Every structure is written in C-alpha cells, then in structure tokens.
Amino acid sequence: ARTAAVIPAAGRGVRLGPGAPKALRALGGTPMLIHAVRAMAASRAVSLVVVVAPPDGTAEVKSLLDAHALPERTDFLVVPGGAERQDSVKLGLDALPPEYDIVLVHDAARPLVPVDTVDAVIEAVRDGAPAVVPALPLADTVKEVEPAGTPGEPEPVVATPPRARLRAVQTPQGFDRATLVRAHETVTDQVTDDAGMVEQLGLTVVVVPGHEEAFKVTRPLDLVLAEAVLARRRL
Ligand code: C5P
C-alpha cells in the first residue's frame, strides 16, 4: 500500500489576524506549511505530499518547497485550492496518481503533529479501517446552544453532551482512497472535517489517540504556544 498526504493550505486564516495566508506565516523562522509538509514526510510510509495552495500563490508555494529540503524518498506536488476547505481537499485528491491507495488529509494549520501520531493513523488504515481520525478527550465541558441572532447576546443552552464520550478531532485523518473519493463525490453537506463525509456514507470512522502538539494554530495565542513547543524541541 502506498500512502500520500494531501495538505489543504489555501485558507486565508482571518482569525489569526491580518497578514499573509496562514500557511505561509513563519514559525521559528520557517513557514507553517513547511513544518506541516515535513511532519508528513517524517513518516517513512509517506512518499508523496500534495500541497493545495491559495490559487494566487501556487508559484510562491512551489518555490518555498524547492527551497526547503525534504527527505529523498518524498515527492511533492502543488495544486491550486478552492473556495472552501472541502473544495481544496477535492482538488488535492484529483491530483493523486493512481498508485496511491491510502490518503492522509492534514491541515497546514497543524504544523507540529509528531510522527508517531501520523504512523498510528496510517497503521489503522492498513489494518482495514476506511477512515481514521486522531483525537483527544476534552478538558472543557461542551454545551450545545441555540445561536443568538445578534453577536454578544446571551444564548440559551440546548444540551450538555456527556464529556467523557466527546473527543476533539485532529489531523492527519487517514482514509482508504476509494472511500474518501466516493465521499467527496456523494456528500454535498458542509462538513468541518473529511471523516464527517465518510460518516455520512454510513461507514464507521475510528479514533486513535491524538497528541497535544497536534493542536491547530487558529488564533494569535496558538502562535505563542507553537513557538514555545518548537523552542523546547530545539533544546
Ligand atoms: O479555517 P481552518 O483552520 O479550519 O482551515 C483548516 C485548513 O484548511 C487550513 O490548513 C486551511 O489553509 C485550509 N483551507 C483550504 N482551502 C480553503 C479554506 C481552508 O485549503 N478554502
């Protein structure tokens, strides 16, 4: 079985504040996207990384990848992304050569995922799961609300799902390629992760342990944490 990783990196990252597209922001002096690509290439099982770039930034992303060394065994491709994350992933899948039968989908916004987590996801797909997600138990209690019409207005709570049964889902998510392609062809609902599309096909998605360093860099405080994790690794 050959494994490829698709990295959607076409988002603007508005929640992070003004500046370059999120994937191109520096972390320890290196663009976040390069960290994410290296995190996938760190797995000996991954021989191709497909980066889905902002449509007006494919040339820039290509030259970035050329400028940063990857392991000898790893190829990369750059393709332009779409309006929504889902569209970007689909465009990445369309670019995959036929010989890849396992696909990882990994957010550029999770630059520090450890290789053991990547390998655990691949292993579970090899063992026969059509879709695998790394995830962690929650520290916070989660409430479902009736969203307020106007921002800042109090929102009534609708439900409190038992916390022990909830998991916060990370990436890379791993898939049997044919399953993920079918999900992208059939599911049209908006979803926030790829495994959600596979669930809508009626298939079972399984969870493997995630890692706290696989957190998503979304808000300015996440950048502070990411810099600290990186600094600790370099000690
Ligand atoms: O916005 P969010 O943090 O959920 O984005 C997750 C990932 O999806 C990021 O790596 C972002 O660059 C990517 N994305 C994309 N195409 C879009 C929107 C987001 O590739 N149109």
Could you describe the largest sheet, including whether it forms a barrel?
8 strands, mixed
The kinds of small molecule bound in this structure are: cytidine-5'-monophosphate
Are there runs of 5+ residues with pLDDT below 50, and where?
none
Q: How helical, in percent, are the residues?
A: 25-40%
CATH superfamily: Spore Coat Polysaccharide Biosynthesis Protein SpsA, Chain A
Give the structural class.
alpha/beta
CATH topology, anyone? Spore Coat Polysaccharide Biosynthesis Protein SpsA, Chain A
Radius of gyration: 18 Å
Distance between the termini: 36 Å
Quote the beta fraction.
15-25%
Whole-number count of domains: 1
For the record, the CATH class is Alpha Beta
The chain-level mean pLDDT equals 95
Question: Could you explain how this protein is built, in words?
Answer:
- This protein is an alpha/beta fold and 235 residues long.
- The chain has a single domain (3-137, 171-233), classed as Spore Coat Polysaccharide Biosynthesis Protein SpsA, Chain A.
- 31% of the residues lie in helices and 22% in strands.
- The chain is built from 7 helices and 12 strands.
- It has helices at 32-41, 58-67, 85-94, 115-126, 177-186, 194-200, 220-233, and strands at 3-8, 26-27, 30-31, 46-53, 75-80, 102-105, 131-137, 144-145, 157-159, 167-169, 173-176, 205-209.
- The strands form 3 sheets. Strands 1, 4, 5, 6, 7, 10, 11 and 12 form an 8-stranded mixed sheet that branches.
- The structure holds cytidine-5'-monophosphate.
- The site of cytidine-5'-monophosphate (C5P) has 18 residues, from helix 3.
- Cytidine-5'-monophosphate binds next to helix 3.
- The record marks 15, 22 as: Transition state stabilizer.
- This is 2-C-methyl-D-erythritol 4-phosphate cytidylyltransferase.
- Keywords: Isoprene biosynthesis, Nucleotidyltransferase, Transferase.
- The record marks 163, 216 as: Positions MEP for the nucleophilic attack.
